[in-house]
Design brief:
Length: 449
């Protein structure tokens, strides 16, 4: 944190502009050493300056340099951004000069990490930044923006504030009994407060399940025997030729992925190798992978042939699907019916080749996942697995407090349990944290952010 970091903040490649970002106590001095504008060093904050990046009296590039002095910056340190002409060679040369002049190459996410460690943002807001970068739909963007703007953090801070008020009341009751005007925190009153807290926590957990769906989408695996039309189904759903379609069995030997958006929900469609017994080593690996993907999927599209009888391979798949979310897609319904599908559940008759009833598949998915019922008015959800795991610990801790009250625990013992809940909520927003967690979280960011 005492050194000065630099990194390219725009995507590598040819473009109109590239930005090289510098942050740290020596940022202004280091940039001044390679910048031709002599007025830059003493210039006021939040100003832009024209000049050249130079080296040994040679002009490297014509640039605009933004100067932002601490503490009113993203990292709360002195920050300089060099806006150069886009291009790999020029951009890398400027970065090389900065590193030679005393900067250190920033690690992934280090600018955002410094913003967190310097108190500019909390941990939930930091996670919102990476979610905003990775957002693939308008809804996931809105959820991420709520986190970046601090609305999600405020939700957790409000819970901590409510809990702090209870703890303060208990503290006064225990240590300052002479204050008779302070409300006595009885067992019943603590139970009432736990009811309110648990209700709020449950609402956040339930809402955040929707957030996870909105953010990460539905991992959808297309499963079936060879030549039942899995690849044709994938191509039809996404509207382009993603998978090779032939009449030769075993054409698809590995999974093929594509994306489909239904009501702002991303479906990651995975076309898998046809499941059958085979002596082909490569194909058998694909079959094994297909069976494994069934367990990892949020939804399985099980494809059967309307023009064929159910086989042993089909029965094997049906057994694997027990307890899973799946839709039975009975394909090739334009051909004569030979399948006995009386015991097949969740079925839709389609022809991927002739585009018959294909619109029924998205409708069925919307129904299965209640996509139309997802609340999108208030998008202040927790969207990270880390936050959700902590919140579930909070829920269990509340139950332990209830049990302690029922078992007649003393008020000072209950106070310790309540402090544990308060600390857990603090972990969500980063009021307390472990260094390893912080390093792992920010390593997911790109360099320069």
């Amino acid at each position: 944190m005492n050194d000065t970091i630099a990194a390219i903040s725009t995507a590598q490649g040819v473009g109109a502009i590239s930005i090289i970002r510098v942050s740290g106590k020596e940022a202004i001095k280091i940039v001044s050493s390679i910048f031709s504008n002599s007025k830059f060093f003493n210039a006021p904050t939040h100003t832009i300056h024209y000049g050249y990046i130079t080296f040994n009296n040679e002009k490297i590039d014509e640039v605009l340099v933004s100067l932002m002095r601490a503490p009113k910056t993203f990292t709360m340190e002195d920050v300089v951004e060099i806006n150069a002409h886009g291009g790999i060679t020029t951009t890398n040369k400027i970065l090389e000069l900065l590193l030679s002049a005393g900067c250190r190459l920033a690690e992934p996410g280090e600018f955002t990490k410094r913003a967190f460690l310097n108190g500019r943002i909390d941990l939930t807001e930091a996670e919102g930044i990476i979610d905003l970068i990775n957002a693939k739909t308008d809804i996931s963007r809105e959820i991420a923006l709520k986190q970046v703007n601090g609305k999600t953090s405020q939700m957790i801070k409000d819970l901590r504030s409510d809990l702090a008020a209870i703890l303060a009341n208990i503290e006064v009751n225990l240590n300052y009994p002479e204050y008779e005007d302070i409300e006595e925190m009885t067992t019943e009153k603590i139970k009432e407060n736990m009811d309110i807290l648990e209700s709020k926590i449950t609402k956040i957990i339930n809402s955040s399940k929707n957030s996870e769906l909105l953010k990460n989408g539905i991992k959808t695996v297309i499963i079936g025997r060879p030549n039942v039309g899995k690849s044709s189904l994938l191509n039809n759903l996404v509207g382009e030729e993603k998978a090779i379609v032939t009449e030769i069995q075993g054409t698809t030997r590995d999974s093929v992925e594509a994306s489909l958006v239904i009501d702002n929900i991303i479906l990651t469609l995975i076309d898998t190798a046809g499941i059958r017994r085979t002596s082909d080593v490569v194909e058998s690996i694909g079959v094994e992978k297909s069976l494994k993907l069934i367990n990892e999927a949020d939804l399985v599209l099980f494809v059967l042939n309307y023009n064929e009888q159910i086989t042993e391979e089909d029965k094997q798949i049906i057994t694997k699907l027990e307890g899973k979310n799946y839709i039975s897609i009975i394909n090739k319904c334009d051909l004569p019916k030979k399948i006995d599908d009386s015991n097949i559940k969740n079925k839709i008759y389609v022809s991927a080749f002739k585009n018959i009833n294909m619109d029924q598949i998205p409708l069925k998915i919307k129904e299965m996942f209640d996509l139309e019922q997802i609340e999108t008015n208030d998008l202040s959800y927790l969207s990270s697995a880390r936050s959700m795991a902590i919140l579930k610990k909070v829920s269990l801790a509340i139950k332990e407090v209830r049990q302690g009250l029922s078992d007649g625990y003393s008020l000072d013992m209950i106070e310790l349990d309540l402090k544990d809940i308060w600390n857990l909520l603090g972990e969500i927003i980063g009021e307390n944290y472990e260094e390893e967690l912080i390093d792992e979280l920010f390593s997911r960011f790109c360099v320069g952010k």
